[in-house]
């Protein structure tokens, strides 16, 4: 079935390629060529919205918290598949509750046979975790196939969390230093505010959706960071270029022109990333499901919004472009770019 | 921007081609690749999450190492002072991570200090140039001498312990007959063990969880065990429990007749009379001599075979054993006799190991993950390719060619590095496709903009490349920094993601700067276009 679909799509690509190479394909534009949205004026709405959302996200983080996976909380996770074809959750729960291992969560996923078992961290150090997983294994015996077993002891989980957070900080700082060298400090600061805003909102999303927060989530956060910065840098590059070219254009107008001229690129790129992520989300399977869901939210929703409505307009407040020379403009704005 | 010398064009194409060719071994079965020359054998390794297997992180008990060292120092101090005939009161004590001794006569204190200083060795043997020593001997005043082990010396000892442990772990794991296990040191006090294809690590954990310190000692028959338990334990003996249930106490002398280090071989076999599983062993020459002497002196008395401070059995010596070989019986199953033989052959661990992290993936899940990852990658790529064709038409064809070469190069580089492909790694490749497409989008949108600005076709293409490439470099370096940090802090699957993302960025920048430009340059030279169909 899937093969037929893949082959069909392959044929479609071949046909499209030939048609495109012959120049017979009509052009599809999802963004009109010339746009003149007043993005910077929108900052009077977008900044309060972002501030409010950030506060909500932080509140959620403190009230609901994150659903720490075993990487950071320690404990045991077993993914089992009932050999009979359908797992009897109730019977399994009774069996496992009889082991007196404290909190045991059972969760069915995918089809009826798959069950995810989480056993909370046992008191008594690393050896106690090993005993617990042994007990679960012998209690369930041969009735299930053990597809995945993960045991993380208390010390390792603490280290993983500390390392993950450290990595996130390290990434932000090193990227900032790079931006500071490449641009001016205002740009680095603007990018940092945009970044932290992205991460805060994504953490809020993780808190609401209660997806497992584990090592892969840190990877997702870092990727979101990278993508969002990628976008911010593209717009900043353009702003810098415009600043050099139009010395007398008022800042809000200059920012608007920069955002508008990179708008089609932003939309097209995000659309392709969405396509790739959508494929991962739909077909990538359970193991990377939460990873892609988080990415989808962070890159597609938040990242796009931030680079357009936060990262660029915030430069006004940071005083970019205030001390430009009073030299006459070398070209009239928005008509012709200078060669 | 659009002019390439012939040599440059050739160089670019050759580089791309060679990197792409590096991916070729992945398409052939492993057995066939093995027959190729060594330089052609580099290929992608599937991570444990894709091929199934066990990952264990073991930790050496650093407190044990410290305690062992301090006990050793205490014994040395006792012996040194006795040999020098210097009196001390209250015994030699281990307190606050240091060994302390109180010299009876204050006049002896200086002599004692000088003698004890001789115990301290320069760190790193004769080659040691750091000036640090493995023992710090200080006068704590009031006749008290304190010997402490400096941090550097402790770390040095821990490092040696880890090195020894890795060797033993290697031998034990290899005994299981698994394919290509990976055993590496991690950090100061940890050992990482990866065994591909192992579905149930229970036996492996049992094998690695035992120190396997084997000793032959005499049973102390002067006191019955129940009296010893009540407190009447002779100072030269200790109370040990039996290894097999029910736990039975034995009074065993502390002196070791022969230790496990003197064993040269151990095999599981069956007792010829009773037919039950036993472990037969052979001593080396010195072990054989010690054992034969000890058995000659103690005929009629029981001796204890002690493993990790538990008594396996305590047979009575019926006659002197001079041949240097013997057998251990002690309610074994075939499996436990086999395991003990493995442990004895591999040797004892210098310190106990604990499993601090374990991740096992069954083969079914791994296969599922590969299939799903592949499907997602195909569907994602196809969607992106169609979208690019619809948006940029002829230039979409160029972009798709460039992205396809880009992906092939990613696989080539990953193979060249013998990198491990994990499920997050596949996600990384899919995301790279997104980034690679973005570089093309940036270029094409810029060209369109330049065209709108009134440039002619060729000048617009030229300016579009020039301006977009600066942006591509900037934006990719930031993403690369994120990938580098991920690689640095990440372990296992996350690292796999960072590797593919990082390599993807490198190939993306390379393709954008060279191949895409080259393709467009050729097209320009061939068509001499008046307008750009973009």
From TrEMBL, chain A:
Main location: membrane
Compartments where found: Cell membrane
Source organism superkingdom: Bacteria
Transmembrane regions: 6-25, 45-66, 160-181, 188-209, 215-239, 267-288, 294-318
Key words of the record: Cell membrane, Membrane, Protein transport, Translocation, Transmembrane, Transmembrane helix, Transport
SUPFAM superfamilies: Multidrug efflux transporter AcrB transmembrane domain
GO molecular-function terms, A-Z: protein-transporting ATPase activity
Xref: Pfam families: Sec_GG (PF07549), SecD_SecF_C (PF02355)
Topology with respect to the bilayer: Multi-pass membrane protein
GO CC field: plasma membrane
InterPro entries xref list: SecD/SecF_arch_bac, SecD/SecF_bac, SecD/SecF_CS, SecD_SecF_C, SecD_SecF_C_bact, SecF_bac
Keyword Transcription in record: no
Keyword Membrane: yes
Residue span, Protein export membrane protein SecD/SecF C-terminal domain: 135-319
Record's function text: Part of the Sec protein translocase complex. Interacts with the SecYEG preprotein conducting channel. SecDF uses the proton motive force (PMF) to complete protein translocation after the ATP-dependent function of SecA.
Subunit structure: Forms a complex with SecD. Part of the essential Sec protein translocation apparatus which comprises SecA, SecYEG and auxiliary proteins SecDF-YajC and YidC.
Family: Belongs to the SecD/SecF family. SecF subfamily.
Protein name in UniProt: Protein-export membrane protein SecF
Automatic annotation (TrEMBL), chain B:
GO cellular component annotations of the record: plasma membrane
GO molecular function, one term: protein-transporting ATPase activity
SecDF P1 head subdomain domain sequence ranges: 239-351
The keyword Transferase is annotated on this UniProt entry: no
Membrane topology, record value: Multi-pass membrane protein
A GO biological process held by the record: intracellular protein transmembrane transport
Keywords annotated in UniProt: Cell inner membrane, Cell membrane, Membrane, Protein transport, Translocation, Transmembrane, Transmembrane helix, Transport
Residue ranges crossing the lipid bilayer per the database entry: 375-392, 397-417, 423-447, 468-490, 496-524
A Pfam family it matches: SecD_SecF_C
Family: Belongs to the SecD/SecF family. SecD subfamily.
Assembly: Forms a complex with SecF. Part of the essential Sec protein translocation apparatus which comprises SecA, SecYEG and auxiliary proteins SecDF-YajC and YidC.
Function: Part of the Sec protein translocase complex. Interacts with the SecYEG preprotein conducting channel. SecDF uses the proton motive force (PMF) to complete protein translocation after the ATP-dependent function of SecA.
Protein name, per record: Protein translocase subunit SecD
Organism: Bradyrhizobium shewense
Lineage of source species: Bacteria, Pseudomonadati, Pseudomonadota, Alphaproteobacteria, Hyphomicrobiales
Gene (UniProt): secD
């Amino acid at each position: 079935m899937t093969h037929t679909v893949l082959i069909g799509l392959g044929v479609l690509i071949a046909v499209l390629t030939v048609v495109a190479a012959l120049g017979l394909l009509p052009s599809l534009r999802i963004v009109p060529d010339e746009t003149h949205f007043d993005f910077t004026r929108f900052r009077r709405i977008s900044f309060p919205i972002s501030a409010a959302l950030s506060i909500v996200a932080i509140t959620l983080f403190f009230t609901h918290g994150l659903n720490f996976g075993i990487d950071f909380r320690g404990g045991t996770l077993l993914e089992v598949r009932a050999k009979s074809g359908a797992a009897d959750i109730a019977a399994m729960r009774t069996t496992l509750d009889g082991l007196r291992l404290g909190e045991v969560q059972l969760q069915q996923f995918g089809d009826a046979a798959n069950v995810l078992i989480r056993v909370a961290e046992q008191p008594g150090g690393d050896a106690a975790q090993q005993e617990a997983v042994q007990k679960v294994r012998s209690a369930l015996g041969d009735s299930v196939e053990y597809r995945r077993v993960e045991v993380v002891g208390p010390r390792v989980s603490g280290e993983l969390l500390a390392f993950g957070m450290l990595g996130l900080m390290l990434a932000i700082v090193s990227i900032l230093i790079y931006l500071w060298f490449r641009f001016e400090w205002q740009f680095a600061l603007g990018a940092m505010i945009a970044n932290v805003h992205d991460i805060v909102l994504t953490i809020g999303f993780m808190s609401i959706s209660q997806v497992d927060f584990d090592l892969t989530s840190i990877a997702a956060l870092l990727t979101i960071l990278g993508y969002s910065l990628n976008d911010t840098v593209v717009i900043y590059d353009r702003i810098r270029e415009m600043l050099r070219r139009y010395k007398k254009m008022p800042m809000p107008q200059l920012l608007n022109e920069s955002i508008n001229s990179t708008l089609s690129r932003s939309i097209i790129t995000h659309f392709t990333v969405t396509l790739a992520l959508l494929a991962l989300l739909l077909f990538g399977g359970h193991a990377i499901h939460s990873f892609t869901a988080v990415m989808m939210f962070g890159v597609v929703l938040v990242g796009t919004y931030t680079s357009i409505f936060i990262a660029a307009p915030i430069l006004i407040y940071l005083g970019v472009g205030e001390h430009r020379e009073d030299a006459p403009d070398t070209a009239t704005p928005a008509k012709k770019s200078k060669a | 921007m659009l002019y390439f010398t012939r040599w440059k064009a050739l160089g670019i194409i050759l580089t791309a081609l060679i990197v792409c060719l590096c991916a070729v071994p992945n398409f052939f079965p492993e057995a066939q690749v093995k027959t190729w020359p060594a330089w052609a054998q580099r290929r992608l390794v599937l991570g444990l999450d894709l091929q199934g297997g066990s990952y264990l992180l073991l930790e050496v008990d650093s407190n044990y190492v410290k305690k062992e060292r301090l006990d050793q120092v205490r014994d040395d101090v006792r012996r040194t002072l006795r040999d020098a005939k210097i009196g001390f009161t209250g015994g030699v004590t281990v307190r606050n991570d240091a060994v302390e001794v109180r010299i009876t006569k204050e006049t002896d204190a200086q002599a004692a200090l000088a003698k004890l200083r001789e115990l301290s060795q320069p760190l790193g043997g004769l080659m040691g140039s750091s000036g640090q020593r493995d023992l710090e001997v200080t006068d704590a005043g009031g006749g008290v001498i304190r010997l402490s082990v400096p941090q550097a010396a402790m770390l040095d000892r821990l490092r040696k312990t880890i090195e020894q442990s890795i060797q033993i772990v290697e031998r034990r794991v290899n005994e299981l007959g698994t394919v290509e296990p990976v055993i590496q040191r991690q950090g100061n006090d940890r050992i990482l063990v990866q065994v591909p294809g192992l579905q149930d690590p229970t036996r492996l954990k049992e094998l690695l969880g035992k120190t396997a310190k084997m000793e032959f000692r005499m049973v102390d028959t002067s006191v019955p065990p129940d009296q010893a338990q009540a407190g009447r334990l002779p100072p030269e003996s200790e109370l040990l429990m039996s290894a097999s249930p029910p736990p039975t106490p034995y009074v065993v002398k502390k002196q070791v007749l022969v230790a496990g280090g003197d064993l040269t071989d151990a095999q599981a076999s069956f007792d010829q009379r009773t037919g039950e599983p036993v472990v037969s062993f052979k001593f080396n020459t010195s072990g054989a001599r010690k054992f034969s002497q000890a058995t000659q002196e103690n005929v009629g008395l029981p001796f204890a075979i002690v493993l990790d401070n538990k008594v396996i059995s305590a047979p009575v010596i019926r006659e002197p054993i001079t041949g240097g070989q013997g057998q251990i019986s002690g309610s074994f199953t075939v499996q436990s006799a086999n395991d003990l033989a493995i442990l004895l052959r591999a040797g004892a661990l210098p310190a106990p190991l604990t499993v601090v992290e374990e991740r096992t993936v069954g083969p079914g899940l791994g296969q599922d993950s590969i299939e799903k990852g592949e499907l997602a990658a195909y569907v994602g790529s196809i969607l992106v390719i169609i979208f690019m064709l619809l948006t940029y038409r002829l230039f979409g064809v160029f972009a798709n060619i460039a992205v396809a070469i880009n992906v092939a190069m990613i696989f080539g580089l990953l193979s060249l590095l013998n990198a491990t492909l994990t499920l997050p790694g596949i996600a990384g490749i899919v995301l790279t496709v997104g980034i690679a497409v973005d570089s093309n989008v940036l270029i094409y949108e810029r060209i369109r903009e330049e065209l709108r600005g009134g440039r002619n076709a060729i000048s617009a293409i030229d300016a579009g490349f020039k301006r977009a490439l600066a942006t591509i470099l900037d934006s990719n370096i930031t993403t690369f920094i994120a990938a580098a940090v991920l690689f640095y802090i990440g372990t296992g699957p996350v690292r796999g993601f960072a590797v593919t993302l990082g390599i993807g960025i490198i190939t993306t920048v390379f393709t954008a700067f060279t191949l895409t430009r080259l393709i467009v340059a050729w097209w320009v030279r061939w068509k001499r276009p008046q307008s750009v169909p973009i």
